[in-house]
């Protein structure tokens, strides 16, 4: 430190000496120039004034001439031989300050790199040093700024002019220090020290700057860098330094991506960890020194870079851009974090099949990610997508788009009767958004849920269930088996926080031999039905033939049937007509008989019998006559009985006969008398002849029919007289006309 102060005081004295020398040299140079050019100017002016005559009264115009113009006019009047002294004097004026005054002129866009050839004290640079801080011979830490600098005599100093470093917008510049303290073994880059953005080499070396690649870098701007100490790598010379120009541009992270950071310097990552923890205050890895001072770890980082532009040192940070994690509609993302705070289970005592942690901890996060885009570091976190819509899993040759059932095939089960057959099943499940972390914590992934839970659960159930039924029973009671399976599987999956929506039995493929038997039986049954149908068809065909034949004779049959029907109808009509007439006659007779009965009981009965006789005569004339006679006889007998009871037998008989004879004008002597005595039959012949003669002598226009003739009924009264019967003939007209 004392050496630095001594060097500073000496440097100040040298600067004062150089300033004084430069002032004296400038004054001498100005005086020589004035002495050289003064006489010609004065001479020329005197001659010009003397040769010009101007009236005193007139105003003299003032003409301003610039010194350069005047000098050019003066030089134009100097002869070539007169220029030699001027050139010699001018050369001496310039050479002496430069050589003996040590004048160095630095332009505005330059920086002077000073090399001291020897030191009066004879001190050299310490071992391992390249840049001199205390006036030692060699490359000097201090540079020359734009302007005039005195005292840098050519025999002691060599000044190299370098252009300033310009870093354009959108670029950075890296630096490599050629001198400084060695970098510690635990780091690979030099630390950042206060040195005015590497423009003050003395501060860099005095403050402990380290040689080699620097953690710090230059952003857009213009810098005066001591190129003897620092090698500056820009886009322009990146290729010569073995780097890609793209690495020296401002790093840009796209809007739909995240940058996964890997640092190349810092402390090693502790055992059991895969990434460095989040270190605050380093401005997204743009301040590497703050990252190192904060205990940052080299390697993969938990922190990510979001969309934007970042000034990053490519020797310190490597960035890999990956797309944001997108959670589609109908899904949630379960976060499995491999980094973070210590594991603290928050699943509760009821959940014994896994562990859940809060966000930011290591393990399965209890809160899932919902649909959208999320900036997730996929190198230290795993996102397991869990569908929240219904998932269909097929135990068949069909595969859904989610491909969870790609390895599932139809189930081979064995029935109670020993037959093995294939069974296709479709299972619909649903995982709730809040249940998704539990499912992933339990089984690890949705594919594991299918392979390790659903496949054995459903497969074993149907294998066990099929053993309780024959193949044909399983086929015939398919809906019942499906309902039983749905209820069982719903209960079984609920234990895994999975909802079983429905279980569907698809195609059932029984053994071919059994189906062949069933097919043959069915074919035989169908053939039997076919034969029955054919037989029925033949019967119908026979009936058709019969009906066709009948149709051919239908006209004759119709005529015959119509004739028969007409005859039957006529007979029925006649019968009905006769019946009506008979009924009407009966009714009339009954009415008449009733009237007669009122007048006289016997007469009433006679009228009724006569009415019945008339009615029967219309239908069966002979029966009607007999009934009429019987009715009349019964009536008369009744009348006789009544009369006999009243008058006695002989008295009533005599009265009745007298009444009849009187009322009816009955002839006591018949017109024809038929009699027979002693067994002779001539009486009948004589009677017949007498009747014929009677008819022949009848009045003109009078017709006597058997029903209308005055036939007589002979009542024989047998009286004992010596064994002989003497007929007593009484004529009763049948028509009731006793006139």
Automatic annotation (TrEMBL):
Protein name: Band 7 domain-containing protein
Source organism (scientific name): Chlorogloeopsis fritschii PCC 6912
SUPFAM superfamilies linked to this entry: Band 7/SPFH domain
UniProt entry tagged with the keyword Transmembrane helix: yes
Membrane spanning residue stretches: 83-107
Band domain ranges (all copies): 326-542
Annotated signal sequence range: 1-38
Keywords from the UniProt entry: Membrane, Signal, Transmembrane, Transmembrane helix
């Amino acid at each position: 430190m004392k050496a630095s102060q001594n060097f500073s005081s000496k440097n100040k004295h040298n600067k004062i000496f150089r300033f004084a020398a430069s002032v004296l040299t400038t004054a001498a140079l100005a005086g020589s120039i004035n002495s050289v050019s003064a006489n010609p100017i004065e001479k020329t002016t005197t001659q010009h004034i003397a040769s010009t005559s101007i009236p005193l009264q007139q105003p003299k115009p003032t003409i301003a001439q610039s010194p350069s113009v005047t000098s050019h006019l003066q030089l134009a009047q100097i002869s070539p031989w007169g220029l030699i002294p001027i050139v010699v004097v001018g050369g001496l004026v310039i050479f002496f300050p430069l050589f003996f005054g040590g004048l160095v002129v630095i332009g505005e866009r330059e920086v002077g790199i000073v090399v001291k050839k020897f030191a009066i004290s004879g001190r050299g640079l310490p071992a391992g040093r390249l840049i001199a801080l205390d006036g030692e011979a060699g490359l000097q830490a201090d540079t020359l700024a734009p302007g005039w600098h005195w005292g840098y005599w050519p025999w002691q100093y060599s000044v190299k002019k370098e252009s300033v470093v310009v870093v354009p917008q959108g670029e950075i510049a890296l630096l490599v220090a050629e001198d400084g303290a060695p970098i510690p073994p635990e780091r690979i880059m030099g630390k950042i020290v206060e040195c005015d953005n590497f423009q003050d080499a003395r501060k860099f070396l005095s403050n402990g700057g380290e040689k080699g690649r620097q953690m710090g870098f230059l952003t857009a701007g213009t810098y005066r860098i001591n190129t003897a100490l620092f090698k500056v790598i820009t886009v322009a010379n990146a290729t010569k330094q073995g780097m890609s120009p793209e690495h020296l541009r401002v790093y840009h992270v796209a809007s739909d991506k995240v940058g996964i950071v890997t640092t190349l310097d810092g402390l090693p990552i502790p055992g059991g960890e895969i990434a460095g923890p989040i270190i605050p205050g380093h401005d997204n890895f743009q301040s590497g020194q703050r990252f190192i001072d904060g205990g940052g770890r080299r390697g993969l980082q938990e922190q990510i870079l979001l969309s934007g532009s970042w000034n990053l040192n490519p020797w310190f940070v490597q960035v890999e851009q990956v797309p944001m994690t997108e959670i589609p509609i109908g899904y949630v993302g379960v976060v499995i974090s491999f980094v973070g705070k210590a594991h603290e289970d928050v699943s509760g005592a009821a959940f014994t099949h896994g562990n859940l942690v809060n966000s930011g901890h290591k393990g399965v996060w209890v809160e899932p990610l919902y649909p959208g885009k999320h900036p997730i570091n996929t190198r230290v976190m795993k996102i397991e997508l869990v569908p929240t819509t219904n998932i269909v899993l097929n135990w068949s040759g069909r595969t859904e788009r989610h491909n969870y059932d790609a390895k599932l095939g139809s189930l081979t089960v064995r029935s109670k009767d020993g037959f093995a057959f294939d069974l296709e099943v479709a299972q619909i499940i649903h995982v709730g958004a809040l249940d998704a972390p539990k499912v992933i914590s339990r089984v690890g992934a949705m594919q594991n849920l299918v392979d390790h839970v659903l496949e054995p659960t459903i497969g074993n159930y149907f294998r066990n269930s099929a053993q309780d039924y024959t193949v044909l029973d399983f086929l015939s009671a398919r809906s019942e088996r499906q309902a039983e399976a749905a209820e069982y599987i719903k209960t079984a999956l609920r234990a895994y926080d999975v909802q079983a929506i429905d279980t569907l039995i698809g195609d059932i493929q029984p053994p071919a031999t059994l189906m062949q038997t069933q097919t043959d039986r069915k074919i035989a049954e169908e053939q039997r039905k076919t034969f029955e149908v054919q037989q029925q068809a033949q019967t119908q065909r026979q009936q058709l033939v019969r009906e066709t034949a009948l149709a051919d004779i239908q006209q004759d049959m119709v005529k015959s049937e119509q004739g028969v029907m007409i005859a039957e109808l006529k007979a029925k009509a006649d019968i009905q007509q006769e019946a009506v007439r008979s009924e009407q006659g009966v009714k009339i007779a009954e009415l008449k008989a009733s009237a007669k009965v009122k007048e006289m009981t016997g007469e009433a009965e006679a009228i009724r019998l006569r009415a019945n006789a008339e009615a029967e005569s219309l239908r069966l004339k002979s029966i009607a006559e007999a009934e009429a006679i019987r009715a009349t006889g019964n009536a008369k007998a009744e009348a006789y009985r009544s009369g006999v009871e009243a008058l006695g037998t002989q008295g009533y008989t005599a009265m009745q006969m007298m009444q009849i004879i009187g009322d009816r004008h009955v002839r006591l002597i018949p017109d024809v008398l038929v009699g027979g005595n002693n067994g002779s039959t001539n009486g009948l012949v004589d009677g017949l002849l007498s009747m014929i003669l009677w008819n022949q002598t009848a009045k003109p226009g009078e017709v006597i029919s058997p029903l209308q003739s005055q036939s007589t009924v002979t009542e024989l009264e047998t009286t004992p007289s010596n064994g002989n019967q003497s007929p007593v003939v009484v004529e009763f007209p049948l028509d009731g006309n006793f006139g």
